[in-house]
Amino acid sequence: MTAALITGASTGIGRELARLFAADGVDVVVVSSERSVAELTAVADELRSAHGVRVDTITMDLAKPGAGAELVARVDELGVDVEYLVNNAGVGILGLTVQDSDPDAVSRMVQLNVVTTTDLTLLYAGRMVQAGRGAILNVGSIAAYVIPHGLEAGYAASKAFVRSFSECVADDLRGTGVTCTHLAPGPTRTQFMDTAGLGDTSRLDRYFMDAAPVAKAGYAAMRAGRVNVIPGVGTKIMRAMSALSPSRRLTAELSGSFVSRH
Fold this sequence. Notes:
Elements: E1 2-7, H1 12-23, E2 27-32, H2 37-51, E3 55-59, H3 67-77, E4 81-87, H4 103-131, E5 134-139, H5 153-172, E6 178-183, E7 188-189, H6 192-195, E8 209-210, H7 211-224, E9 228-229, H8 233-244, H9 248-259
Parallel strand pairs: 1-2, 1-4, 2-3, 4-5, 5-6, 6-9, 7-8
Helix pairs in contact: 1-2, 1-7, 3-4, 4-5
């Protein structure tokens, strides 16, 4: 069977993307961490009931070395041919200077956001090219465009890598029948801010998008073979303002004030 492999699929943008694939009749393999077993099971039950597709679930730690290869092996054991790869799993460490950050936590973040995303892309791109079809959707962040980014050096840098890597992969894949799309959401109503340690972000709610329209924008762009998509007017303004900022110090201060811990 051919299917979509979606990491970080238990909640938020990943869950919404799984719903979009299933609504189009695409079987899915949904992946989450071990702490999200209940949420992932609920997603799988929902998709099977609503759309009659095959749904396989995998729970594992994607922030450990070798996780990408391990996940591919586990998917192969299911007898699944991955036609769509969605690298959505990611974490952030926000609101801290680099000197106040825990090196082990930053290392795990980079392992997940950068290394596992890279490994999965490389491991599946070759297979897709050989088959002559396929699409890769890498979920980054608007933080990739805001440099310097105050109080989230490691996270912003990891997402800058995802942006650059995705654009280069898209160019390499030209003419192969395989595409790579980079989705750069702005602030989104998911569990991301909680896991990033910011706690109550209600003061910022007016800047946030819901996960469903963000996922819809990324899904449509992937289907169309576009290289980049930045959903939401506010997010596009953030990118433009960072590019036009008269001062790198101003860029850092404004971006840092958004994620500062109150």
